[in-house]
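Subject: Sanity check before I submit

Could someone independently write out the structure tokens for this chain? I want to compare against mine line by line before I put it in a report. The sequence has 277 residues.
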Amino acid sequence: MVIDFHQTLEVNGIRFWCYTAGHVLGAAMFMVDIAGVRVLYTGDYSCEEDRHLRAAEIPQFSPDICIIESTYGVQLHQPRNVREKRFTDVIHSTISQGGRVLIPAFALERAQELLLILDEYWSNHPELHNIPIYYASPLAQRCMAVYQTYIKSMNERIRNQLANSNPFDFKHISPLKSIENFNDVGPSVVMASPSGLQSGLSRQLFEIWCSDKKNACVTLMNGLTAPLNMQVHYISLPAHADFAQTSTFLKELMSPNIILVHGEASEMGRLKQKLVT
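---
Independent answer below. Compare away.
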């Protein structure tokens, strides 16, 4: 069964409906009403609007219980413009020095946001137009059709772009099916899955590129055994709420009972202490 946001359904006397959660296209927070007791389950959520996602909604009334993710605990994200600038600066600098950039990423979630950032940056920098960008993930390619279709489920910024062209019909980015189809003859940017570099095209490219100090990888995972000379940059562009978002969300929600989930135990303990003090 498919339901819309804010549409109320009732099954065996239990009523439920959902709100936009941010995080990823289609992500939903569910409100469940059982005998007059209302429980909000956030799932993964983000109160920060980015290039394409709406921010999580604040329900119009307080639930009796809020079950809320605590992935980032008491950590604070850097401002989004600072994180994005670091991301594009690393890539531009590496390309300018004749290097290649590997971006290991999930096929869904941040991949589409990062591709929007890259396509916009390339459009604004004509000197990069001869440098190819690829995304190498069959699943990401299938996901792209969904993103191209459901633009009206995204934020106002990206809906307004639809008047000129579909923002997910990228001008400077092409899909890459396999390493056999890759003409690796100069600087390039490749976003490839899996994000953990444990196998697949991201691992293949890592092993080819990691011995050259001109190249860069924008994430670092543990357990890599190849000789590492390439530059490694960890740049956080999360789709989860940080402490500032969580505390503001809960203050506005005013739920008398809060259950923390989806977090490391000690980090959840620190979050609990900051929320109650």
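---
OP: Matches mine. For the report I'm noting this point. DSSP finds seven helices and twelve strands in the chain.
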